[in-house]
Design brief:
By secondary structure, the protein is an alpha/beta fold. It is about 45% helix and about 15% strand.
Length: about 300
């Protein structure tokens, strides 16, 4: 992922999380079922004899893998990610399944720039906008939301693509109601789905696919939904329908105030990207960043 044109209070720890951070690595591995009491004693004996750190000694004895150690360290440092065997979510969530990959490192760099240049007490909402389908807009929005939640920010991902929503597939949402249902008064913010395995992350799906998405997104109630969400979350990422096909993304971005413009190398035409940029600027949307996406 290449980043170009780069133009919050952490959540208090619960007592349980605070205790986990204080626990030694061996105790965590024992609780996770990666070691038994006898193995812990053998690791401690080797550690005392060799001077190795606990994790290195446990690996040398063949009791744990590097993945086991990384999972325990993630608990210690309150850094949540998923083991590849946990297949409840789509593997497109590389920030959750492969957090130490170069692609996710690029996402963290983007996150840092967005925190410096956009997200603060007054600006909390960012629309993710692509010109065309297939440019990875939904994937990027989902993974960006994950890396913000891993930082400890109360993060909400909203699927405002009311025509061909994808976040329900990425996060395997069981709640069929979502944004469209809220906009017509058939649901409220209680349909937001909290992702328990990724602490700090919540997702509001698109909901029932309506016959009139443009009209729904243009209603004042959408602005009210965003206002109420601003009161509860530090970072709000909004996924959108391709901007070259309808004015949905322009409408959503105008409500958000800022946009992250997404393109794909050797696929997105510069003329299309420039047209989307001009449409957003005409709507007084700030182009916070433009990236070449490879997710």
């Amino acid at each position: 992922m290449n980043i170009s044109h780069i133009n919050p209070a952490p959540i208090p720890l619960t007592a349980e999380k605070d205790q986990a951070r204080k626990e030694p690595l061996g105790q965590l591995l024992l609780k996770m079922g990666k070691l038994n009491s006898e193995e812990v004693e053998r690791v401690l004996a080797l550690q005392q004899k060799s001077g190795l750190r606990f994790g290195a000694a446990a690996k040398k004895l063949g009791f744990v893998t590097e993945t086991d150690i990384q999972q325990a360290l993630a608990v210690q440092f309150d850094y949540h990610y998923l083991h590849k065997s946990q297949e409840f979510f789509s593997k497109r969530l590389i920030a959750a399944y492969d957090p130490f990959s170069p692609q996710v490192e690029a996402l963290r760099a983007l996150r840092s720039q967005l925190l410096l240049r956009w997200f603060d007490d007054s600006e909390k909402v960012l629309a993710v906008v692509a010109a065309n389908a297939g440019e990875g807009c939904s994937n990027l929005a989902a993974n960006l939301a994950v890396v913000f939640s891993q930082l400890g920010e109360r993060t909400l991902l909203i699927d405002a693509n009311l025509r061909e929503p994808d976040q329900r597939n990425i996060f395997n949402l069981y709640e069929s109601r979502g944004l469209s249902d809220i906009l017509v008064g058939r649901a409220d913010l209680s349909v937001i789905h909290k992702i328990d395995s990724l602490s700090g992350l919540s997702v509001l799906g698109a909901g029932t696919v309506p016959p009139n998405p443009q009209e729904l997104l243009s209603r004042k109630v959408f602005g009210e939904v965003l206002r109420r969400c601003r009161e509860q979350y530090d970072v709000i990422i909004v996924d959108t329908y391709p901007a070259s096909m309808t004015s949905d993304a322009q409408t959503v971005a105008a409500r958000c105030g800022g946009a992250l413009l997404v393109s794909r190398l050797n696929e997105t035409r510069m003329s299309q990207l420039a047209n989307v940029r001009d449409q957003l600027l005409m709507s007084d949307v700030e182009i916070v960043a433009a990236i070449v996406n490879d997710l």
